[in-house]
Amino acid sequence: MSLAEKQKQASPLLIFVAFATVYIVWGSTYFFIAKAVAHIPPFMLGALRFIIAGVLLLLWCVIRKEKIFNPTQIKHASITGVLLLFVGTGAVIWVEKTMPSSLVGVLIASQALWFVLLDKPNWKTNLSNRNTVAGLLIGFGGVILLMYESAADVIAGHGAVSGLSLLILLIGMWSWAGGSLYSKKKSTGSTTVNSAWQMLAAGLVFLPASLLNKEWAGFDWQAVPASSWLATAYLVVFGSLAAFSAYVWLLSVRPVTQVSTHVYVNPVVAVLLGVLFAGEHMSGLQLAGLAVILASVLLINLAKYRKTPDNNNHTQAPASKSSMPLTGTAGKIACAK
Fold first, then answer.
1. d(CA 249, CA 243)
2. Residue 13 backbone phi and psi in degrees, to 5
3. CA contacts within 13 A on the Cβ side of 169
């Protein structure tokens, strides 16, 4: 079934709820990751989150009598899961040990820039467009504004940890963009089954990483406050079951350029939650960087929207069996991010 046919068949209400879920839930995950990782080691959190979510989603697929054991599908989904969730989301979990969740959310807003830069087959199309080139330049200017204060601390010898966190987050963004492009080319079959194997594969990689990092030795489960367990439950149910599935489903029924608009809204939600409930503060320079980054990403995507349908085919998600999101309208899995 073509993308156009799926767009016609998809319920406008489901599309609206799925977009709202991706916008709000993914923006809120930065806040809840910070709550959870304050008392649960980062790799352990990733293992618990994605193994539980992956197993639950696979059980859902079994109940729906979907085919879950396709070797090729499992291979591509596993590679995608490691790139997106272990490296991409794992970077976010790791850096929130030392970085405010609002700042992490803002930095992730620049991720759309890496989609353009890493999409080598479409460089000619993307980089020949003046709006896209201007957006790239403006976006990097915004990143410089955003990172200037932390970079200054590193140069002064006072922010080595923050500098390392920025590097890890940058690698995570590269991996997320690369994994998304890989998935767009290689994914086949049910989007729900793909999501389940992606999460399970990532969780199984998080597990040995957690053991090698000696996170389980001496870990006191009873010392973890209820707020951290509730945050973890939120990440499993809403972040890793609801939002990511909604995201994957939207890719099968809407153009990828439209689905990618979540990068505009997520940082705003993250900033508001961090400032309102976590006592975080953003300087005027960082807020200016946020505004510049969001403007650049918007400029890039406006350029994509103006392409003709024929030129825009390469940006659309591959045709695959479209599965309804888990729990009806709110089904999704989270990137984790």
1. 10
2. -65, -45
3. 28
Instruction: For residues 82 and 166, give the distance between their C-alpha atoms in angstroms, rounded to a whole number.
Output: 20
Distance CA 320, CA 337 (A): 24
In this prediction, residues 166-173 reach a mean pLDDT of 90
Strongest mean pLDDT among 102-111, 139-148, 199-208, 247-256: 199-208
pLDDT range class, residue 334, cuts 50, 70, 90: very low
What is the C-alpha to C-alpha distance for residues 255 and 40, in angstroms, rounded to an integer?
A: 37
pTM: 0.76
Alpha-carbon distance of 244 to 331, in angstroms, equals 8
107: number of CA atoms within 13 Å, CB side? 28
pLDDT bucket at 8, cuts 50 / 70 / 90: low
- Residue 16, both tokens: 């609206």
Given a contact cutoff of 8 angstroms between Cβ atoms, the answer to whether 187 and 198 are in contact is no
Distances (CA, A) of 222 to 75, 190, 225, 246: 37, 39, 8, 34
